[in-house]
């Protein structure tokens, strides 16, 4: 496959960025999207140019590092992470536009890499259980209904990649917050801190400069882990309960 | 946004129902309009209840518009650099046009109040103190009916997303089934309200109501 790539290049957080066009030849459709970018970077290295900086780590779809906006879709056209996106999802001769996540809370560090530490600070504000809940055998001491365990597990699959923010027309991180609040709120260990968790996480979310949710639903379509929209409803209900309880 | 929106859903449902009195003829329609002013008498003064409702609606409008602009500002601050290519894959047109659609409805509301309430402008130049005649004269003009129908289309879209979004914001959509019920409620409210409102102008224009 031969492809034309339009890529956002930005030397550092304060520099003005711009789109640059590159051409890559003989790309195999079995390559992952990141391997295709590796080919481009080898080519740029040979030409003595600065390679395109992009985030990646596990390349197994579980770390959430490889955040790229591909043709206006977070992680590209498939419901998966960019590392698990393969070139067979594209056509020979196609022009592909690659941009970083766009959010004021996710400032660009270089080229396609953004700083997502705002997510860490939201988790630090309340996305945890403060006490030691024991080792694996202790799990039997606290029975959890299967439906709750399943729901908690399904939303605990959030990898914090930020695709929800990237896809949201409002730049809101409500799906990310809702996933953590639903995950811990479904389990007995999460109950004592449930009210302060939602209040503190929402306060940190707003402080970081994320937008407000208007329930448009783009986040859930972009989520590589298919977190459903009802976690935002759970977030809202928990917030309402917390306010009623005097938080 | 959600709480004030629910106030408006209740209001448009009641308003739409009242408008259907036009099918009962001039007497039925005008009597209903007069009745609105005398509900609660003698406990309340004339138009007493009407003013209580009006104040409630004005308060809801202020809250609704202020929240909308606050969300709008937050959204534009949250993404100062726009995407070169943006694709939508899971959002309804109505959800993406809430802000401009809302402004359209607000502009329509100003005209609607001038037309039928505050000033009572008769665009055909006829009498203005007979509510039924004012309504018939207005909708006998095809372009007036068109303006009202366009506004009802904007209202339908606003209600379609707004009803669902309110349920979601108030935390009533915790399951897949509850979420589809809320989406269905959005469709039902939009079709019933905008459809019900559109009947009177259309039937007036085509001479059934005269």
From TrEMBL, chain A:
Enzyme nomenclature, EC number: 1.3.5.1
Cofactor: [3Fe-4S] cluster; [4Fe-4S] cluster; [2Fe-2S] cluster
Organism: Nocardioides kribbensis
Family, per entry: Belongs to the succinate dehydrogenase/fumarate reductase iron-sulfur protein family.
Domain 2Fe-2S ferredoxin-type residue range list: 1-102
Organism superkingdom: Bacteria
Record's protein name: Fumarate reductase iron-sulfur subunit
Keyword 4Fe-4S tagged: yes
Keywords: 2Fe-2S, 3Fe-4S, 4Fe-4S, Iron, Iron-sulfur, Metal-binding, Oxidoreductase, Tricarboxylic acid cycle
Cofactor binding comment, as recorded: Binds 1 [3Fe-4S] cluster. Binds 1 [4Fe-4S] cluster.
Signal sequence coordinates: none
Keyword Cytoplasm carried by entry: no
InterPro entries named in the record: 2Fe-2S_ferredoxin-like_sf, 2Fe-2S_ferredoxin-type, 2Fe2S_fd_BS, 4Fe4S_Fe-S-bd, 4Fe4S_Fe_S_CS, Beta-grasp_dom_sf, Helical_ferredxn, SDH/FRD_Iron-Sulfur
Annotated catalysed reactions: a menaquinone + succinate = a menaquinol + fumarate
Residues in 4Fe-4S ferredoxin-type domain copies: 149-178
Biological classification of the source: Bacteria, Bacillati, Actinomycetota, Actinomycetes, Propionibacteriales
